[in-house]
Amino acid sequence: MHFAILGILIVLVIAFFVVVWKAAPHWRWYQIVAVSVTMLLAVIFLFPVAGVLRSRSAWHQVKEDLEQRLERELAENKELKYGDPTNPSVGEGVRPLSQKLSKLGIEAGRRWRNLRLRNAEGNEIVLAEPPPEAVPGVEPEEDPEPGNSPLVPEGMVVYGFAERPAEGVEVPIPRLFLGEFRVSASTPTQVTLEPTGQLAQGARQAISDRQATSWSLYELLPLDAHEPFIAEGSEPSDENLFGRVDEDLVRKLLGRQAQDPDLQAAFDATLQEYLRDGSRASGDDPPETRWMMIEFTERHSISVDSPDQRGALDGGYFDGSGRAVDSRLQRGEEGEVTFESGDRIVVKEEAADGILELGVAREIDRFFIRPLNDYRFAIRRTRLMLDELANRKTQLEFEQQVLTDATDKTTRLIQREQEVRNNLEQDLAQFQVERNAIESFRDTMDQRVSETEETLVRLFRDNQRLQAELEQIHRVIRERIDAVTAAVE
User: Is the pTM of this model over 0.90?
Assistant: First the structure.
């Protein structure tokens, strides 16, 4: 290509000289000089122009490359900012994650991380800010003067967690719930806590044994949700409303074992609730867990704002029919949500039945959705139940002691009765021997009495016979004496 251009330039120069030679008889000298100078300058400036064009071409290529890089950077920036729902490898963007983080921050309230346990005596627990970490080869900076504001506002009720290292996480994370505390004193560098109630046995032991050396304090307890238990990358489907549940994670967190069969049955029931969360419902599911997906067959509006206006602290966020009374939750304008034909929603079964009765929607499917826990009330309710169980345990221990004492007394009484029974059995055996001897003696005596009676009867009869004989003799003698007496006279 370069040689072709060079050849064309040589041909043009030769053609120029030929034209000038042909036109020389008709031109004046200044015309020839001007044309020659112009030609000379054109040839001389040809090389800077070529350099400029070459440089321009290079800069144009740089411009094209930069524009392509800009497009790629803009696309990458857009992906980083908003994510790409069609590409699972990209995931969510900065803005959705920031919104979720902001939501979690609002739900968690203020929090104080990485506090060190300094002292735990009685009901007072003293936590302090950790010292700055020393960097090898870098002079430690002087500690700045602490401000006048307390580390944690006094009188605030906070929730304490013990921080522990976790695999794959650079910083310690909360792993053990310690209890609810009230801030009794606070300085810019340390805070003194007092439990609002009796702490659980595991929390007391972790604090007393210095196992909970790193603490996190939260103004609010985190809210329960369905998404944390969904497997990464799983998407909602017809089989599961939220996506596939991460079974390994759920079993790792909730798969506890207990020696008590009733307690183990409760653990298994809770585990199944988390594993089935978002799956299709069955006829045996409780009413509070059954939700229905419906599809509207025609345009329909639902009123969501209550005519009452009040704050949430004056009676809750919603009225008796479920409509919002807090202005922060109200939709505004007409206070209605309008659904077009073909829109699908998932609502509780009782609410879906009311919509189906209006004839504006049809049933698509039914799902089992785990009721979310309110940990503030759940922990308090659990603490009250534990207190009640502790009182019941004390009562049962007292009753058990009474039963034990009664059992011991009964055992001793049984032993005494057994001794009496043994003595009675011995007396009975002796009585049987004596009775047999008496009966034998009685039989002997009866026989002797019978023989004696027979002898006496025989003797009585002999006496009667002898008496009759004596009377006969006596009568004969008397008759003889009477006869002798009569003869004498």
Answer: no
